Amino acid sequence: MSEKELFNREEKISEFAGKLSPVGRILEDPDYNVWCCSPIYDDQGRVHVFYSKWLNAYDHLGWVAACEVGHAVADSPEGPYTDLGTVLKGERDDSWDSWSIHNPTVYKVDGRYVMLYMGSSGAALDVSLDEIMEMDSDEYAPYFQALVETKRVGMAVANSLDGPWERVGDQPMVDVGAPGSWDDMVTSNPAFVQHEDGRYWLYYKGWDYATLPTGGNRRYGVAMADNLTGPYTKFEGNPIVDYSLIDIRVQCEDGYVWREDGQYHMILRDMGFYNHEYGLIIHSDDGISWSEPEIAYKEAVHYFDEAPNGLDREGRFERPQLLIKDGKPEYLFCAFRGGKYNTSSAVVLKID
User: Of the residues 31, 88, 282, 352, which has the fewest C-beta atoms closer than 10 A?
Assistant: First the structure.
């Protein structure tokens, strides 16, 4: 299948997409790349955002080596935000999440707060993080790939949005599958929902070694638990969102799941169903069987008039996260390259 054939698909615009209006960038920082912004209201109506950040000195691909989770708060979803510092980071020891803590997504569950995240470890590498900082892109490439292959899903919990955040256990919440399985290389990009059956459902992106020679294929699965902190058991029918049957290059990532009006919904980043700039939205009655994708949002230029910046990933939103109020999405938060310092920051869109 040619690239033209791959992307030549009738566009179906969702009702969700028709409700979006741009607000602007937030959390622009001269020293840090900002990514993965997860918003949540506190009991006083303030908005807390938990976000990925890593020093500009590591360039954009530093996310898998040196990322940590920051915390900011505002009286309005549109800002301005006050930064409260780092709340979770790797300890540079030999634990599975000792280097990078990335992909935070935060929820209130049973009266306390849970943060799901992706962790990585460079403990088995023959270099230090300081040495990686000094490398050019060619030198860093094999270490970047090695770090990617350590990505796993973890969990931290807190009694307050102000922390402290405590990691759950000393192993990943969702580990990779057996050799040859669809998720035998990576688990990451977590999302969460409490199912109507009372159990806790943890959605995650899986990535396998078998498709790696063709660029890899990212799919979504789910694991369930009777208790919030696990153990989580993978659903036997995984993967539940899989576009590889269309073409090995058609995939998805960055899922966010919520339940509204008795139905489950998921927003994802498109990776070939329509193109690589759109977001997708899919729906489900049971959280397992999902509808055909519609467009959740279009490319960034559709909403923001910013000059081309020449950066990798230019022109698209990633890591969509929703601010939920009274059970309904109120704002869409995404990561977006460029901005005041030409690195990356968060962008906010209102859902009318």
Answer: 352
Which of 39, 89, 93, 83 is CA-nearest to residue 67? 89
**CATH assignment at residue 55:** 2.115.10.20
The SS3 call for residue 141 is helix
| pLDDT tens for the 352 residues of the chain, in order | 555 566 678 999 999 999 999 999 999 999 999 999 999 999 999 999 999 999 999 989 999 999 999 999 999 999 999 999 999 999 989 999 999 999 999 999 999 999 999 999 999 999 999 999 899 999 999 999 999 999 999 999 999 999 999 999 999 999 999 999 999 999 999 999 999 999 999 999 999 999 999 889 999 999 999 999 999 999 999 999 999 999 999 999 999 999 999 999 999 999 999 999 999 999 999 999 999 999 999 999 999 999 888 888 888 999 999 999 999 999 999 999 999 999 999 999 999 9
Nearest to 314 by CA among 300, 298, 296: 300
Amino acid at 37: C
CA-based Rg of the chain, rounded to a whole angstrom?
A: 19
Of the candidates 65, 81, 102, the residue with the CA atom closest to the CA atom of residue 28: 81
**Do 280 and 295 contact (CB within 8 A), yes or no?**
yes
Tokens 């230019």 correspond to 314
In this structure, how many other beta carbons lie within 10 angstroms of the beta carbon of residue 14? 20
Torsional class of 203: left (φ above 0), alpha (ψ -120 to 50), beta (otherwise): beta
Domain of residue 166: give its range.
Answer: 3-351
Tokens of 333: 């938060």
Tokens standing for residue 52: 């990925």
Coil vs helix vs strand at 258: strand
CB hemisphere CA count around 257 (13 angstroms): 28
SS3 100: strand
Amino acid at 46: R
Looking only at the bridges linking them, the beta strands covering 343-351 and 328-338 are: antiparallel
pTM: 0.96
SS3 135: coil
Count of structural domains, the chain: 1
Residue with tokens 């460079």: 122
